[in-house]
Amino acid sequence: MSIKFSVVQRANPQKRDDPAKYYANIIGDGKTTLSDLAKHASTMSTVSKADILAVLESTFEKIAQDVADGKIVYVGEYFTLQAGGSSVGAETEKEVTAANIKTVKAVFRPGKMIKDALKLATFQKKG
């Protein structure tokens, strides 16, 4: 299976008068659900899909809670998740409060196993 990409035309935002160029734009193609993961895992072990799904659900619930508590969650060599965000600046340190925080997001960092898999990825132009 290959990573699919389409071709998009984009102007240079810093040089609007330059001619636009064409770029490869990686696109999603299909999806994998939690149920799909559990089904796959059940074929690789003696544990049922229902049991694996229960473990995955409780694991991801714990991951979500810990990220919301400000922890950095290390999931083996697969990935790391933590909270990140942006805030509005203030003139002094004393003026900075939680109200300055404007956005909060999950920061995903792939681990060695995902990075290694991506190094071996192949690409296919869609269309």
How is the topology of this model organized?
Elements: E1 3-10, E2 21-26, H1 34-43, H2 49-68, E3 73-75, E4 79-87, E5 101-110, H3 112-119, E6 123-125
Parallel strand pairs: 1-6
Antiparallel strand pairs: 1-2, 3-4, 4-5
Could you list some keywords that capture this structure?
three-stranded antiparallel β-sheet, alpha+beta, DNA-binding protein, histone-like, putative, DNA-binding
Helix content: 25-40%
Termini separation comes to 16 Å
Radius of gyration of CA atoms, rounded to a whole number: 21 Å
Shape: flat
Report the major sheet.
3 strands, mixed
Mean pLDDT: 94
What does the model show?
The protein has helices at residues 34-43, 49-68, 112-119; strands at residues 3-10, 21-26, 73-75, 79-87, 101-110, 123-125. The chain has 127 residues and is α+β, with helices and mostly antiparallel strands. The strands form 2 sheets. Strands 2-1-6 form a 3-stranded mixed beta sheet, with no helix packed on it. Strands 3-4-5 form a 3-stranded antiparallel beta sheet. A hairpin with a 3-residue loop joins strand 3 and strand 4. It has a domain at 32-69. The mean pLDDT is 94. It starts with a strand and ends with a strand. Helices cover 30% and strands 31% of the residues.
Summarize the structure.
The chain is of the alpha+beta class.
